């Protein structure tokens, strides 16, 4: 798999997660299942999941990924009162924390596994050229 293909897959997964998050955060509350734990945990998990795929493939993009995720979470919180939901700054802070954790996890995975795979790929290409 080329690096470009991996990036396109990561962006596709993040785009799909963006739609899922929009649906879950903007749907009427009565249509959602009951919350067993604090909804802040769900917010953090959702935005960690959103930030993770791209940072695994492009770890240097972590700050941009966190910033875009934070803006997206803020926009959702601003829109929520217009769809019968309540705006909560703590939800937005949980979104930001989740994005930071997800980006950090993505960068960590890249440093643990991605660098080795990239090095092996480069060595394999060099061996085929010889």
From TrEMBL:
Residues 40-104 form the VanZ-like domain. Keywords: Membrane, Transmembrane, Transmembrane helix. The chain crosses the membrane at residues 41-57, 62-80, 92-113. Pfam families: VanZ. The keyword Transmembrane helix applies. This is VanZ family protein. It comes from Falsigemmobacter faecalis.
């Amino acid at each position: 798999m080329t690096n470009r293909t991996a990036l396109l897959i990561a962006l596709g997964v993040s785009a799909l997660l963006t739609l899922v998050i929009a649906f879950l955060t903007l749907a009427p509350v009565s249509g959602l299942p009951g919350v067993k734990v604090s909804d802040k945990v769900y917010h953090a998990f959702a935005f960690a999941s959103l930030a993770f795929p791209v940072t695994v493939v492009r770890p240097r993009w972590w700050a941009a990924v966190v910033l875009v995720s934070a803006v997206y979470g803020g926009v959702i919180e601003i829109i929520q009162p217009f769809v019968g939901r309540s705006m909560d700054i703590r939800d937005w802070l949980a979104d930001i924390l989740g994005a930071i954790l997800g980006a950090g996890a993505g960068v960590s995975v890249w440093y643990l596994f991605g660098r080795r795979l990239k090095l092996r790929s480069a060595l394999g290409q060099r061996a085929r050229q010889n």
